[in-house]
Amino acid sequence: MRRILHIDADAFFAAVEQRDDPRLRGKPIAVGYDTARGVVATASYEARRFGVGSAMPTRMARERCPELIFVAPRFNAYRKAGEQIREIFFRYTDLVEPISIDEAFLDVTSPKKGPTSGTLIAKRIKADILRETKLTVSAGVSYCKFLAKLASGWSKPNGLTVWTPEVTDGILESLPVERIFGVGPRTAEKMHSLGIRSGGDLRRQTEDFLTIQFGKVGRHFHQLARGIDERPVDPTSVHKSVSSEETFDSDLHTVAELELALPALSEGVARRLERAGAMGRGVVLKVKSSDHAITTRQTLLPLPIRTAPQILEVARYILHQKFVLEKPVRLLGIGVYELQEGELLQPPLFPDWNPVGWRPPVR
Q: Which of 252, 262, 286, 295 lies in disulfide reach of 257, CB 3.0 to 4.6 Å?
């Protein structure tokens, strides 16, 4: 039986800021820009007690917590801390699958050092990270990725949750279907219409029924509801991306013409992300000129995105701000990278959230 860990730093950006600035410790802080269209990237646990959360507009965050302190992001500091944490992971296993800068799966079935117990290795990793970075992480330990990830969020912050096969049935029985990997808002809505609201409800459906209702992914839901997840920990998955491209019948000559092609490409990428149950923090725009020269420009975001409007906003920003169009264009593509599992932090109340805080020029 595999021993899989999922390790996730606690309020990572905010924790780094509180670690580096003693004046912020114990206070409600939000990493982000306190502007009219600003968005909270991460909130400290002191702020979360007031209901402040990731992807929340700053206006709402201020209303919920008038004493909230906004701190501008320092991505170099977060990247350095993330690299320190990742180096600790590799002391114990080479099977590390990064999900984001502060989160990863580890397969410690055959560890490089230490005990063969996944629980004891998780304790050692937590202790190493606290000692060397002064940051806390939460760990989930189980026999598959799906359950390990669920477990890591069970008792945050600084938690350690172990789920063995003996307890799986009881946990999944009452688990809301929204927390099952791959179940997005639309799928959850359809499941609710079918009377499927929990893992137990899902488990009581036949594989044939779920396949008829949800296509190929129905088998995936059928297995997860029974605690079956054979996905391996893949050290190369961080390089994966989702993209969509179009080769034009006639070369395009202006930014305005290229911009007209962006919505359909964004929709294509969003559909692929939805099917994969993934979201991404990076967006890349690819242009192939009439002479077949390829140029790419990209932007890394503080929060992951998945929806077509969000992808379109970032793509338009890259096109206007990072490209100088010098030659006719024969191909245009959009890609989303730094993929991770799970559901969007973006609340549906704010579909117009602009991930880059940018507006196109008025014509």
A: 252
DSSP code at position 265: H
Q: Which of 17, 46, 97, 103 is catalytic?
A: 103
- Distance, in Å, from the CA atom of 51 to the CA atom of 293, rounded to the nearest integer, reads 49
* Residue 7 host element (H or E): strand 4-9
Amino acid letter, 189: E
* 262-298: pLDDT as tens digits: 998 998 898 888 766 678 888 999 999 988 888 888 8
Q: Based on the residue annotation, tell me whether 230 is a catalytic residue of this protein.
A: no
CA distances from 258 to 251, 306, 329 (A): 10, 21, 8
On whether the CB atoms of residues 5 and 141 are closer than 8 A, the answer is yes
Helix (H, G, I), strand (E, B) or coil at 53: coil
Place of tokens 């968005």: 39
Report pTM.
0.70
CB atoms near residue 74 (< 10 Å): 14
The residue written with tokens 């004493």 in the block is 67
| Number of other residues whose CB lies within 10 A of the CB of residue 88 | 19
Give the C-alpha separation, 29 to 141, whole Å.
30
Q: How far apart are CA 167 and CA 255, in angstroms?
A: 57
* Cα–Cα dist 276/340, whole Å: 10
Distance CA 159, CA 338 (A): 26
Strand partners, 244: 334
Dump pLDDT digits (tens) for 128-168.
999 999 999 999 999 999 999 999 999 999 999 999 999 99
CA separation for the pair 338, 343 (Å, rounded): 15
Return the structure tokens found at 75: 């991505």
Give which of 340, 106, 109, 143 is closest to 229, Cα–Cα.
143
Structure tokens at 137: 């992480």
pLDDT interval class at 357 (50, 70, 90): low
Distance CA(174)–CA(187), nearest Å, equals 18
